[in-house]
Design brief:
Number of strands: 5
CATH architecture: 3-Layer(aba) Sandwich
Largest sheet: 5 strands, mixed
Shape: globular
CATH topology: Trna Endonuclease, Chain: A, domain 1
Number of domains: 1
Strand order of the largest sheet: 1-2-3-4-5
CATH class: Alpha Beta
Strand content: 35-45%
Distance between the termini: 37 Å
């Protein structure tokens, strides 16, 4: 896909996903989240961001798109993707011995307009473990 103007300079040199995660972290911090870890990877999968928000441990998936041609960014967090995130979250909880900790799954949806201006939505408790 060809990029022009502000969008090109905004995303040059990095992937759309990486830039989306940076934008998400900034927005989450402004919204009262404390970022613990980015890009937790394990055998089971990956969690983009792990944070705390109002005493709750939050596993966050970030989806960034340039258009809604194939649906909203959040729609890309399919049931299969949710299971992968949940498995990775369980592995994180086990490694850190945090099974008694209240936790939830949020999704950050970022739609980048042609001008490069992101529209950001935090979807709290976007899905359940199970």
């Amino acid at each position: 896909m060809r990029q022009t103007g502000k969008l090109l300079s905004f995303f040059s040199g990095t992937s759309l996903g990486d830039e989306g995660e940076k934008i998400a972290c900034q927005h989450l911090k402004k919204s009262g989240y404390s970022i613990i870890l980015r890009n937790f990877r394990c055998r089971s999968g990956e969690v983009d961001i792990i944070a705390r928000h109002k005493g709750v441990l939050v596993f966050i998936e970030v989806k960034t798109r340039r258009s809604e041609s194939f649906g909203s960014p959040a729609a890309a967090v399919t049931p299969r993707k949710q299971r992968q995130i949940a498995k990775a979250a369980l592995e994180y909880l086990a490694r850190e011995n945090l099974f008694d900790t209240e936790a939830r799954f949020d999704v950050v949806s970022i739609l980048v307009s042609a001008t490069g201006e992101p529209q950001i939505e935090i979807i709290t408790s976007a899905f359940e473990l199970g």
